[in-house]
């Protein structure tokens, strides 16, 4: 008499092992890639300002072509800060041209100036900054505000 075999055989299958020897190389390559490609830019704000609130706030899409101008007070006087440097309004056209020359042709046409102005800043100073921006042909201006929380 033959031994009875079940319909379902119980053979053990082995799971192939995963070779992880090259995993650290891969991780460091990806990390290095993102360190090279990512463009992080942050300004050190040297003036104090209280940004006004707005209800129709939108984020800028292409931040590579954005120049930040802060108008706020440092001590008792009002100052203008362009990116990381405190400047006089008359210096703005030359600085904008310097920044524009460092951008690609496509970003030169997309150049946007983001004005972050204290809500109590004198309008004469803001008007002077805008007039200097017109002289530098930096005509795309964005006013920064914080969104009103509902």
UniProtKB/TrEMBL annotation:
<keyword id="KW-0812">Transmembrane</keyword>
<keyword id="KW-0653">Protein transport</keyword>
<keyword id="KW-1133">Transmembrane helix</keyword>
<dbReference type="InterPro" id="IPR003400">
    <property type="entry name" value="ExbD"/>
</dbReference>
<keyword id="KW-0813">Transport</keyword>
<dbReference type="GO" id="GO:0005886">
    <property type="term" value="C:plasma membrane"/>
</dbReference>
<dbReference type="Pfam" id="PF02472">
    <property type="entry name" value="ExbD"/>
</dbReference>
<dbReference type="GO" id="GO:0015031">
    <property type="term" value="P:protein transport"/>
</dbReference>
<protein>
    <recommendedName>
        <fullName>Biopolymer transport protein ExbD</fullName>
    </recommendedName>
</protein>
<keyword id="KW-1003">Cell membrane</keyword>
<keyword id="KW-0472">Membrane</keyword>
<comment type="similarity">
    <text>Belongs to the ExbD/TolR family.</text>
</comment>
<dbReference type="GO" id="GO:0022857">
    <property type="term" value="F:transmembrane transporter activity"/>
</dbReference>
């Amino acid at each position: 008499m033959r031994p009875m075999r079940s319909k379902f055989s119980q053979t053990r299958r082995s799971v192939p092992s995963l070779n992880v020897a090259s995993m650290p190389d891969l991780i460091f390559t990806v990390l290095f890639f993102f360190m090279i490609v990512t463009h992080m830019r942050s300004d050190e704000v040297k003036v104090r300002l209280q940004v006004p609130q707005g209800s129709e706030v939108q984020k800028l899409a292409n931040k590579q072509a954005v120049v930040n101008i802060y108008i706020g007070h440092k001590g008792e006087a009002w100052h203008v800060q362009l990116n990381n440097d405190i400047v006089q309004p008359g210096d703005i056209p030359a600085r904008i041209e310097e920044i524009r020359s460092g951008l690609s042709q496509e970003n030169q046409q997309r150049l946007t100036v983001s004005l972050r102005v204290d809500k109590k800043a004198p309008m004469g100073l803001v008007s002077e900054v805008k007039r200097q921006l017109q002289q530098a042909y930096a005509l795309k201006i964005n006013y920064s505000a914080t969104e009103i929380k509902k």
